[in-house]
Specification:
This protein is of the alpha/beta class and 391 residues long. 29% of the residues lie in helices and 17% in strands. The chain is built from 13 helices and 16 strands.
């Protein structure tokens, strides 16, 4: 008998074998995340394994191209070849300790460079820590923990509480600066008045909202990704009697019973538009959880304004107007790239790269790929100024 599926840790595989639960253990996605999984397990280097985080976003595709969100080399082996150390050791400064910055620092150190990483807060992980705050999403932090361990093993100088300002960066006399300074949520696009309690998804999941009230509305951008869903589940876990999740602009939740989960709604009442960007392996469970929490979805609806607890809505193609109330409105707003540092460093001397959200707000796989390409292009002599940073 061969057992496979979500066996990430060597110790779990060994226990299954030792207890006679199986004859063999099959490792699939875990080896997409780390092709050296078996060798590291065999050699007692389990702490160096890049653990699969199970988000199924790049490792299964209908067209047969297999990649990995957290391992950019997967699917690019023939193009990239084996990892090579740079011909000349250089000094590299990375601005930002989010996933893109951490990966860039790791890859640069693996290439043999002396690396310094600046992170303005006192903890590494950036927006990945916010994403991991959503219920069922905590495994995302395994990627942060792996990168942090690797940076320390490789001798990267990590400076927490250190904002990468131009003078501080240039004081290190870098040959190469990687700007992974992330992005900032923009304010909501609708008018807010009357002391309304309106926050962003990043505020909520980042732990900046102390009182969620008893009624909440979550306004999404229609992308169908995890932002609105995680916000709704986060609110429900904290006892909000009303939660909302957005789809195609906005979704609305009806009253939850005081006994949480006692009054479920039929799953068919949840719009199919909900979770369009979430892998089908996950979306059914998402719908089930939201249904059990009493969440109802209102699609093709936008917020016209929020005045105190009153929310004015514009619904459907006909633009019908209605109102609802909530103690808290949580909005998934657009993100603005934080690219000021690379602009200030233009022409200052070092080669420059702009990666991740600082280049254009996107997803985790883009930040990881950007980081690898930036170091690869630098080692190949293909980088100069910010204008051609990732050309």
């Amino acid at each position: 008998m061969i057992v496979a599926g979500r066996i990430r840790h060597p110790e779990l595989a060994e226990r299954a074998l030792a207890e006679g639960k199986t004859d063999f253990v099959g490792i699939g996605r875990a080896q997409l995340a780390d092709p050296e999984w078996v060798a590291k397990a065999r050699d007692g280097r389990a702490d160096q394994i890049r653990l699969c985080v199970g988000i199924v976003q790049d490792c299964r595709r209908a067209e047969g191209i297999v990649n990995c969100t957290i391992h950019a080399g997967t699917g690019r082996e023939a193009e990239w070849g084996p990892t090579r150390r740079a011909a000349t050791k250089r000094r590299v400064v990375v601005a930002g300790g989010g996933p893109g910055g951490l990966e860039a620092a790791r890859v640069a150190a693996e290439s043999g460079h002396a690396v310094v990483l600046h992170e303005r807060t006192d903890v590494l992980g950036g927006q990945l820590r916010i994403a991991a705050a959503g219920p069922t999403r905590e495994e995302l932090l395994d990627f942060v923990y792996y990168l942090e361990r690797e940076l320390r093993r490789l001798g990267v100088e990590i400076r927490l509480g250190s904002e990468a300002r131009t003078d501080a960066v240039l004081a290190d006399e870098p040959d190469f600066v990687i700007c992974a300074t992330g992005s900032t949520p923009e304010p909501p696009a609708f008018p807010i008045a009357g002391g309304a309690h309106v926050v962003t998804v990043w505020d909520l999941l980042g732990g900046k909202v102390d009182d969620v009230g008893s009624r909440a509305l979550v306004v999404d951008d229609g992308s169908g990704f995890w932002h609105g869903i995680s916000a709704a589940e986060y609110l429900a876990e904290r006892g909000a009697e009303i939660a909302a999740v957005a789809s195609r602009s906005i979704a609305h939740a009806e009253e939850l019973a005081h006994n949480f989960g006692a009054r479920a709604i039929p799953l068919e009442s949840l719009a199919e538009e909900l979770g369009l960007a979430i892998p089908h392996e996950s979306v059914a469970n998402v719908h089930r959880r939201l249904g059990a929490n009493g969440v109802r979805v209102r699609v093709l609806t936008t917020v016209a304004q929020v005045d105190g607890p009153t929310i004015s809505l514009v619904e459907g193609f006909a633009g019908e107007r209605s109102e609802t109330t909530a103690d808290l409105v949580v909005v998934r707003t657009r993100l603005r790239a934080n690219d000021e540092l690379v602009r200030e460093l233009e022409g200052a001397g070092p080669a420059l790269a702009l990666i991740g959200d600082a280049s254009a707000p996107r997803r985790l796989n883009h930040a990881v790929l950007d980081a690898n390409l930036a170091v690869k292009h630098f080692d190949e002599g293909r980088l100069g100024s910010a204008a051609n940073a990732l050309a």
